[in-house]
Amino acid sequence: MRAWMFERTGNPREVLALRDLPVPQPSPGQVLVRVRAASVNFSDALIVRGTYQLRPPLPAVAGMEVAGETLGDDPATGLSAGTRVAGLTTGLVGAFAEYAVLDRASVFAPPPSYSYPEAACFPVAFQTAWFAVHVRGRVRAGDVVLVHAAAGGVGLAAVQLAHAAGARVIGIVGDEAKREVAKAAGCAEVLLRGGDDLVGRVKETAGGSVHVVVDPVGGAAHAVSERVVGFDGRIVIVGFASGQVPAVRADLAMVKNYSVVGLHWGLYRDKAPDVVVEEYQRLVAVVGEAGIRPVVSSVVSFACVPEAVAAVESGQTAGRVAVDLGLPTPA
Questions:
Q1: What is the reported pTM?
Q2: Looking at the predicted structure, is the pLDDT value of residue 331 above 60?
Q3: Are 12 and 51 in contact (CB under 8 A)?
Q4: What is the pLDDT of residues 37-67, one digit of tens each?
Q5: What is the rounded distance in angstroms from the CA atom of residue 35 to the CA atom of residue 138?
Q6: How far out from the chain centre does Cα 203 lie?
Q7: What is the topology classification, in CATH, of domain 128-267?
Q8: Where are the extended beta strands (E) located within 220-331?
Q9: Dihedral angle sign, alpha carbons of residues 284, 289, 293, 294
Q10: 124's torsion region: left (phi>0), alpha (psi -120 to 50) or beta?
Q11: Per-domain boundaries in the chain
């Protein structure tokens, strides 16, 4: 099979190489999937660079999220050959290949109307966003929700889900092109990082303060969150895309009576897998009722994986980027 492998960590454009490898063999409790599409996540670049909290043994095949069909009937997993699935690869590597192995607990049935690229972009971003909005953030109808990086993968999903829950959503993005994407996803107001008085504009739009903040950025974004969150509010920390881990002002949390809560969705799969199953069912029901689809801004061929990973890492993409293994190699 063809696969994008890295034998050393570094710049994705430089270290990812296309190789012919044997088809991986699943162990008991695992599923072999013929990959039809894979999504490109910011974390993929971190893993290739060796800066992610998980560091797989090398050499490794890059990528963590796929959609495709199962191969072979397996009574142990309850899946028959040809079942349409999406999910996370074992060890968060191995997705940018023609075949991939997934742990059974990481295999999900995507919404039936989704294309393969859409299905590949659904499990991580939407489950992370769902847990941020509903499990950790406890968003209710009428709440005002601030979403940092509102045109990114998790950010866009959070905007869509909070809007569907009846919240008024304020988004913060990095450039004008992303402003329109976030607006179309459900933001009532979209502010430009570096171009707007963020604290003043958020307070003005929110009518004083916000109830919930979803923050995949960290760094300076957290300081904005601390100033705009209101009484009994929640700041949900999802990640540190800025590369900076902020200091949490415990004094402000006490004086203003708000909570700062972390979200590591992957940990739920290990510590509370039943919760993941229950919440996924709720998520799929909501996206079906609301007609929500992943915002896939770019679908590239398998030959373009290194460039796609680098583009997502750069922060220049709006929405999700997917790799379609059925697309021809560009001339």
A1: 0.92
A2: no
A3: no
A4: 999 998 999 999 999 888 999 999 999 999 9
A5: 35
A6: 27
A7: Rossmann fold (3.40.50)
A8: 229-237, 259-262, 296-301, 320-324
A9: negative
A10: alpha
A11: 2-122+294-324, 128-267
